[in-house]
Amino acid sequence: MNCKVDRKSTIPIYVQIVEQLRVIIKQFMEENKEKFYTEDELAKMFNVSRLTIRQAVQVLVDENVLNRIKGSGTFISTSEKLEANIENLDKFVNGFYLDQELRTELLFNRIVPSPTWVSNRLGIKPYEEVVYIKRIRLVGDIPIVVDNRYLLLELGKKITDEDLLNTSLVHILTPKLNLNIVESAIEIEARLADEDLSTLLSIPEGSPVLYRYADMKAENYGCFLTGNSFFRADMYKYKSVLRDM
After folding, report:
1. pTM for the whole structure
2. Domain count, the chain
3. Which of 94, 188, 222, 237 yields a CA-CA distance of 20 to 30 A from 39?
4. What range defines the domain where residue 117 resides?
5. What long-range pairs does 118-121 form, CB within 8 A, spacing at least 24?
6. Do the Cβ atoms of 124 and 225 come closer than 8 Å?
């Protein structure tokens, strides 16, 4: 494959690389290859910095397309996950953090081009601008959760940094933006912390974490929010009560 980036394009270079990596990954899968290129190899292939490559690869790691294993390299994620349908799980936000009060640190709240998986979930054009919110939730000084959220630009622009520091996102969305949330789809699975996540959560690389992916739909908007969260497995648990209806 001829790997090129258009440095004059309005599409960020790392996003261009992500789309080309998808093609390469498909070829690897067709050839039953599991181990992927190293960051150095990709940097030479695309003639870009390792930092840009790391940013592109991280997008695919977040999507569970690639998997980083410390000391071994990057691999194609081919294993299927067991799936269970759990009704009324936590009503979007009701996890239990060892019964402690949380505080929030806002890493950023900014407008970015939407990654392909985000635009697909939100039903918008590829690379259309969205608001990207990244926060860490802490108990005291201990980081417990890393949250990544993407919102439709129209709605996300109405949310301030102060809102994000003092209120849960759901409580911002419903009264302030007058949204009627009608559906939330949640997927939960176990993962291992990569280098970046281990730094944010102050845990050793390779430690188990709970990964939660969620979409939200509202009247008059359809899917308006998508994103994921990574929870420290030693500090977090889910609780749900199921009843016959």
Report:
1. 0.70
2. 2
3. 188
4. 90-238
5. 118/150, 118/226, 121/215, 121/223, 121/226
6. no
Nearest to 11 by CA among 126, 169, 157: 126
Whether 114 and 158 map to the same domain: the answer is yes
**Both tokens assigned to 227:** 């994103």
Phi-psi region of 137 (alpha: psi -120 to 50; beta: other; left: phi over 0): beta
72 plus 94 within the same structural domain: no
Structure tokens at 38: 């190293």
- Which phi and psi angles does 43 have, rounded to 5°? -60, -40
pLDDT bracket for residue 149 (50, 70, 90): very high
User: What amino acid occupies position 32?
Assistant: N
Q: H helices of 2-96, where?
A: 13-30, 39-46, 50-62
129-139 vs 142-152, strand pairing mode: antiparallel
pLDDT above 90 for 98? no
Q: Dump pLDDT digits (tens) for 18-70.
A: 989 988 998 888 888 889 999 999 999 999 999 999 999 988 887 778 888 87
